[in-house]
Predict the 3D structure of the following.
Amino acid sequence: MLQRIQKILSAAGVASRRKAEELILQGRVTVNGNVAVTGQKADDQKDVIAVDGRRVAAERKRYILLYKPVGYVTTTADKFAKRKVTDLINLDERVYPVGRLDADAEGLLVMTNDGWFANRLMHPRFEVEKTYVVKLRQNLRPEDAERIRKGVFVEGRRVAAKLRMLHKDVAEVVVHEGRHKIVKRLFKAVGNYVLRITRTRVGNIGIGGLKPGMWRELGGSEVKMLVEG
């Protein structure tokens, strides 16, 4: 995939994007033997990119499935957060969450360093299904369950979800939406409230043997399945 050379150098740990741009302006970066120019793009999987004559190794693409525990945040921008999901992953490569999962929620979270893969999973057109099990404050009335299946208004837009009752106050919900707190908002729209929420599936991939705080690498067939649906 074509990317700006600054981004490739930064991802490879050579320098920050700003410093990488300075290296390019100084004529110290080459692509396939030719001096690179500012704004140029390259494919780190195909092109030979070098700094001062030394080839820059392409970063290995990683695809991780993490069981996020309650209390960990998925944002990487919060400098004051004590517990981040990135603290749970011990890899040479830096990975980041695909989408979000609230701090008070637990369950499956995909993490990667592949920008194309992440964008593909999050794009509204291809949003993969996410399955949650929710514990509710009160029993869900059959008519309210049907309202959610048909669609309720959330911030002025109708949102529908697949819903299956596991108990009178426990439901399994499947949504395509990626908006913030969308599952909680669905139940709030019918006058109920979520006490506990667990994401149990992403696409067709379930928790399996993972426990809170555990993670594993996704296999090639699983990555393909998430991308292709």
Summary: The chain has three domains: 2-55, 63-125+205-228, 130-202. The chain has six helices and 17 strands. The helical segments are 5-11, 17-25, 115-122, 142-150, 182-188, 220-228. The mean pLDDT is 91.
